[in-house]
Structure formats: structure tokens, C-alpha cells
Write a structure and sequence with these properties.
By secondary structure, the protein is mainly beta. The protein has two domains: 9-104 and 221-240, Trypsin-like serine proteases (Thrombin, subunit H); 116-178 and 210-219, Trypsin-like serine proteases (Thrombin, subunit H, Beta Barrel), CATH 2.40.10.10. The protein has one helix and twelve strands. The protein has one helix at residues 232-240, and strands at residues 13-22, 25-39, 45-49, 63-71, 74-85, 91-96, 116-121, 135-144, 148-150, 162-165, 168-193, 196-215. The strands form two sheets. A six-stranded antiparallel barrel has the order 1-2-3-6-5-4. The radius of gyration is 22 Å and the shape is globular. The mean pLDDT is 86.
């Protein structure tokens, strides 16, 4: 797999927060982390998992979704001006009020099982107590069905992060699932009282975690009114070809 090189991934991939707002002011100390998103055009268009965004009817009064984007050495707090969901999957195309953004190239290439992938995103947990820390995870595709099944678990907060093959984003992460199987099941007598046995059961369970990601090739040929009658790839290409 070609080496992925990003000078600063935070200029491409960023966290989403729910914050209190009043007029044009926001209160960052109130922020609640929602998930990860990534730019796909120079115009501030980005992709995330739809389930990380509050539904418009569920957005509390006085609350606003914002993105915190790295621009050089500074962070910029940006409003989400639009969000559109694609029917039948967990994709949300959002627009952030920022221009001339760095962006990632997405591909709708077919992805066979066994393909090596890497994910870059922002988990909800903190290890070093220095704020939200970006993580790079590497693995491979174990199964291709309605989604891609990966051999690595995806931490909470990394929903919506890009899944790379080489330098191209081929999918976005959606969730983690687990499989449980009993490895050992034993019982032993703990107490005998009035000729009745109390038995203690010991069960050892093996848990296997898988990450799930939605591949862009599943959207190939699908058009939508929210994309001006274009496919997702066509819309993004047209946005990147726009001139001021």
C-alpha cells in the first residue's frame, strides 16, 4: 500500500461538537463531542456519518453544531451551514463555513476482502489528558457485504472518519460490532443444603470486535436531488472545478 503522507491531518480531518450558542456567539466550554468528519472539496464540503449529527427536529434550542478546523498553526471554529443525508445509508454531506480547504480524494473503486486499509480519526476517549487526540489505525477488510467489515474495532468518536487505501479515501467508518462465543462453560458445587446443591457456573466468553465502514462504490451510479441530480463523486468533482 503506498505511503499516506499528510503534512497535518487536522487540516483535512476534524472533530464535530455540539455547543451552546446565542446570536453569533458560541460557548466552547459547553461543547459535547459528536464525531469525526473530513473535507472532500476546496469549498468546505465534508463527509461524516449521519448518525453522529443531531436530527434537525432534535436539535435543542440554543444549540449549534460546529467544526474545529486546523488552519496552519491556528484552530478555527466553523459553523455547519448545511447537512444532507443520503437515503439508505449512514452518509451525511455537510458544509462548513470556510473556504479554500485542503481536502482528501475519494474513490469508488471496488474493494476486495483482504485489502489493507488505514483509518484516521478522533476517538472520544482521552489518554494523555491533552484534549482530543487523533489516532491512526491499520488493518484489513475481512468481509465485503452491505458494508466493509474490518479486523479492527473502531473507537467511539471515530464514526465518520476516512478509510484509506493508499492515498484515496474509499469508505467512511460507521460503527463497531462484536461476536461472542463461549470458550469454556463449567459448573461446580458451591454449597449443599437440605440435600440441595447450589452450583456456581463459570463461563468464559471470547469477544471479537470488528469495525464497519461504508464504501463509496456502493453509491456508484446513485443520484440524488440533494446532489443536484448527480452522484456523490460527480457533485464533489463539480464543486472542485468551480471557480470564484
Amino acid at each position: 500500500m503506498p505511503t499516506l503522507i499528510l503534512n497535518d491531518a487536522r487540516e483535512y480531518i476534524f472533530p464535530l461538537f455540539l455547543v451552546e450558542s446565542q446570536g453569533n456567539g458560541i460557548f466552547l466550554e459547553s461543547r459535547v463531542f459528536l464525531g469525526t468528519a473530513f473535507f472532500v472539496s476546496k469549498c468546505g464540503d465534508a463527509i461524516t456519518a449521519n448518525h453522529v449529527l443531531p436530527k434537525p427536529d432534535d436539535l435543542p434550542a440554543g444549540k449549534q453544531v460546529v467544526a474545529i478546523v486546523q488552519r496552519g498553526t491556528k484552530q478555527q471554529v466553523c459553523w455547519l451551514t448545511h447537512a444532507a443525508a443520503f437515503d439508505g445509508n449512514d452518509l451525511a454531506l455537510i458544509h462548513v463555513n470556510i473556504e479554500d480547504t485542503k481536502y482528501l480524494s475519494i474513490s469508488d473503486e471496488e474493494i476486495p476482502a483482504g485489502s489493507d486499509v488505514q483509518l484516521i480519526g478522533i476517538p472520544i476517549h482521552e489518554v494523555w489528558l491533552s484534549g482530543k487526540e487523533m489516532r491512526i489505525l491499520k488493518g484489513h477488510v475481512t468481509l465485503v457485504s452491505n458494508q466493509l467489515e474490518l479486523n479492527i474495532a473502531i473507537p467511539l468518536g471515530m464514526s465518520g472518519c476516512p478509510v484509506f487505501i493508499g492515498n484515496n479515501v474509499v469508505a467512511f467508518s460507521t460503527s463497531s460490532v462484536k461476536s461472542e462465543e463461549v470458550e469454556d462453560y463449567t459448573g461446580e458445587i458451591e454449597l449443599i443444603s437440605n440435600n440441595k446443591e447450589q452450583i456456581r457456573i463459570t463461563k468464559i466468553t471470547r469477544v471479537t470486535h470488528y469495525g464497519m465502514a461504508y464504501p463509496f462504490f456502493k453509491l456508484r451510479g446513485q443520484t440524488s436531488p440533494i446532489f443536484d441530480g448527480k452522484t456523490l463523486i460527480q457533485l464533489i468533482e463539480s464543486r472542485n472545478n468551480e471557480t470564484k
